[in-house]
Amino acid sequence: MYSPKPEDSDPPMAPLDDTDQDDFRSIDPESGVKRGLKTRHLSMMALAGIIGPGLLVGSGGALSSGGPASLLIGFGVIGIIAFSIMQSLGELTTLYPSGGAFTQLASRMVDPAFGVAVGWNYFIIWIAVLANEYNATTSILVFWSDKVPVWGYFLLLWIAFLLFQLCGVSTFGEAEFWLALLKLVGLVAFYIFSIVYVAGGVSGADAIGFRYWHDPGPFVEGFRGVAKVFVFCSTFYAGCESVAVAATETKNPRVAVPLAIRQVFWRIIFIYMGAAFFFGLTCPSNADQLVNGTSRALLSPMTVALQNAGWQGGVHLINAFILVTCISAINSSIYIASRTVLFMAQQRMAPSFLGWTDKRGVPIPAITFANAFGALSMMNVSTGAAKAYSYIVNLSGVSTFLVWGSISLTHIRFRQAWEAQGYHIQDLPFVSLWYPWNAYFGLGANMFLALVQGWSNFSPWDAGGFVDAYVLLPLFFVIFAGYKLVFKTRFWRKDEIDLQSGRRRDLEEAKETATGSRLTWKLL
After folding, report:
1. What pLDDT does residue 508 have?
2. Would you place residue 509 in the very low, low, confident or very high pLDDT band (cuts 50, 70, 90)?
3. Whole-angstrom distance, CA of residue 438 vs CA of residue 90
4. What is the DSSP string of 219-274?
5. Cis geometry, peptide bond prior to residue 216 (ω within 30 degrees of 0)
6. pLDDT, mean over the chain
7. Are 73 and 226 in contact (CB under 8 A)?
8. C-beta atoms surrounding 171 within 10 Å
9. What does the alpha-carbon distance between residue 1 and residue 113 come to, in Å, rounded to a whole number?
10. pLDDT per residue over 383-435, tens digit each?
């Protein structure tokens, strides 16, 4: 648990003593993890790392609920909020790349109990995503061959992903780089197909243009449909903040983090807005497959578009593409969940045994613990548990808003402490755009969406949907109050907030200076 800043702390931007070698060790001395991620790894993770079946399949549900215009509006509005959050996160993470990401910064800038509540909510997001991705992957494999039962596929996958994660962060980063690149290539290929298809370039298919914007129309259920899409879109954007979790294990965070933060803008425009536009252009919102598809691929707007263009076998291609995204999403989910609980355990916010790492910097207990929650996907084997399972995996919507709002509040508190302790904005290695308006916008927007995202369950009344939408709101405050009572924590005053811990130089700083790469990356 963090304590207030020491009275004799050094100025925040003063260079470290040359004899202090902690910043140049390959193993982080605070957390024990290895600094093995390269700049290109973090950049590609920020751009395409967490793209999974949520975007490719879940967007079909959003399209059928709201229509193509609602899909664009939803991705656009949530994208603006995500951009705001990433600006705040960029300023915090570039200055404090070590020390446990934004969950620990929430403890230092606000209150340790607040950091605990943020951390466990963030962990819940990723075990829900993990269970959903395991379920998606086993469903695809069963669709191709049902000779092996679902639980058999799950056990094989569970062991394979566990062993892969134990290989270390460098292996994880390299795999994510190439998987993310493959996902980008797949999306570009679909975008090109969409342009050719709507223009009439597919033999035997009509030039549809904007036909589906006229029939069945741009909106489904008016504003109610738009509101439903907001909840879908929040789950698709979850993961853009994972750059902060990976920063501790990055070799050169002063270079890699700002670059990754800037790439989030292109992720919003190219991936999310691009997908929303082309899905709505090539797939009608009233397509029966979007609701009643018998496999994951049949629920995807991409499959509907290919089949409408005359390629009925396109389901297998989309299944293969979804499988690639599932592999990447499971990999990322285990990584993010394990590091989140690792950092919490090292600050007395989770059982202490989860904070151990081996000499290679691999958090074996945390990885095993996080991966174990993938077994929640087996609830879907039982017909009686399927409905309960669907509630569990949909929890990540409200949790995303809670965590994002917490990041904005943490940033606001940091800036208040920075000014109160006499430091200057120009000393920051990365300065958030449009502060304070951007940070307050992020805080207000996420508080509002956390409160209203389940309003459609009120009329007609849906008790199960209401619980699913709002259960994590009181849980957040229960965790906060419980930890506060047990450990007697308090809200830090601005003058006692620790502005020193977690700062470090790049591992390859000397190389950057010699080659001028620092300047090159800054210009990029």
Report:
1. 64
2. low
3. 13
4. -SSHHHHHHHHHHHHHHHHTTTTHHHHHHTTBS-HHHHHHHHHHHHHHIIIIIIIH
5. yes
6. 83
7. yes
8. 13
9. 9
10. 544 455 556 656 677 888 999 999 999 999 999 999 999 999 988 989 999 98
Closest to 393 (Cα-Cα) out of 101, 42, 61: 61
Cis-peptide into 6, omega within 30 deg: no
Tokens for 19, please give them: 């004899």
Q: Omega into 436 within 30° of 0, i.e. cis?
A: yes
Contact criterion met (CB below 8 Å) for 173 and 37: yes
**Token match 């993770």: residue?**
45
Tokens of 285: 């919102």
Q: Which amino acid is at 219?
A: F
Could you tell me which residues come within 8 angstroms of residue 440 by beta carbon, excluding any fewer than 6 positions away? 408, 412
Q: Calculate helix-pair angle for 68-95, 437-452, nearest 10 degrees.
A: 130
Rounded Cα gap, residues 397 and 132, in angstroms: 13
DSSP class of residue 458?
A: B
Those residues whose C-beta lies under 8 Å from the C-beta of residue 26, and which sit 6 or more positions away, are 34, 35, 36, 361, 507
Stretch 117-136: mean pLDDT: 89
3-state SS class at 34: strand
Residue with tokens 């061959």: 145
**CB neighbourhood size of 383 (10 A):** 7
Number of Cβ within 10 Å of residue 312's Cβ equals: 10
Tracing tokens 């943020």 back to the chain, one arrives at 118
| Measured distance CA(62)–CA(73) in Å, rounded | 11
Q: Are 305 and 297 in contact (CB under 8 A)?
A: no
pLDDT in tens, 20-34: 565 667 777 778 888
**What is the chain's percent helix, strand, coil content, to nearest 5?**
70, 0, 30
> Cα-flanking dihedrals φ and ψ of residue 297, to 5°?
-65, -35
Instruction: Please provide the distance, in angstroms rounded to a whole number, between the alpha carbons at the two ends of the chain.
Output: 38
pLDDT tier for residue 249 given thresholds of 50, 70 and 90: confident
Q: Which two tokens stand for residue 462?
A: 């849906």
Query: What is the C-alpha separation between 399 and 301, in angstroms, rounded?
Result: 26
- What DSSP state is assigned to residue 195? H
Highest mean pLDDT among 125-139, 179-193, 203-217, 233-247: 179-193
- 515 φ, ψ (degrees, to nearest 5): -95, -10
- Closest-CA residue to 329 (of 8, 54, 27): 54
Q: Given a cut of 70, is residue 109 above it in pLDDT?
A: yes
Please work out, in degrees rounded to the nearest 5, the angle formed at the alpha carbon of residue 66 by the alpha carbons of 127 and 280.
95
pLDDT of res. 483? 93
- Per the structure block, which two tokens stand in for 52? 């999974």
Q: What would the two tokens of residue 98 be? A: 């070590």
Half-sphere exposure of residue 320: CA atoms within 13 angstroms, side-chain side: 6
Q: Is the pLDDT of residue 9 over 80?
A: no
Range 153-163 average pLDDT: 95
414 φ/ψ angles, rounded to the nearest 5 degrees: -60, -45
For residues 86 and 241, give the distance between their C-alpha atoms in angstroms, rounded to a whole number. 7
Q: Which pLDDT value is given to residue 266?
A: 82
Beta bridge partners of 37: 250
